[in-house]
Backbone:
């Protein structure tokens, strides 16, 4: 179903038909029917699952092609970043603990995907391999 550039006046969910505002295709109760919203929710759920796996005791292995590894790459591809800065960026998105972020970064370094330059203390920079 094409949602773009179409002005809706009523919820398109079968059996609802509630009036909508701002030409939206669904009422607030049925926003989940929009493909984009569904995709975002599915991605958030996958992200949460990955984060829980990494934070488990004992921690699960990092999925090098997973969402969290991809997010690390997305951050450091823009600019080299200190480990502490990366921790802040990732923790806001993924709610990962600092030790978990450290393990993620180390696992990615071992896999040759990123480099950690400089001294290991907080001044060390994470750069793309
Ligand atoms: Zn509705």
Residues:
């Amino acid at each position: 179903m094409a949602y773009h550039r179409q002005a809706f006046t009523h919820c398109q969910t079968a059996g609802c038909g509630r009036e909508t505002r701002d030409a939206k295709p669904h009422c607030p109760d049925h926003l989940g029917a929009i493909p984009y919203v569904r995709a975002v929710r599915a991605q958030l759920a996958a992200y949460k699952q990955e984060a829980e796996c990494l934070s488990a005791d004992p921690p699960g292995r990092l999925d090098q092609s997973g969402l969290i590894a991809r997010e690390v790459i997305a951050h450091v591809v823009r600019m080299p970043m200190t480990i502490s800065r990366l921790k802040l960026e990732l923790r806001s998105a993924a709610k990962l603990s600092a030790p978990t972020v450290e393990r993620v970064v180390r696992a990615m370094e071992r896999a040759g995907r990123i480099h950690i330059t400089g001294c290991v203390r907080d001044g060390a920079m994470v750069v793309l391999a």
About this structure: Strands lie at 81-82, 114-117, 125-128. The mean pLDDT is 86.
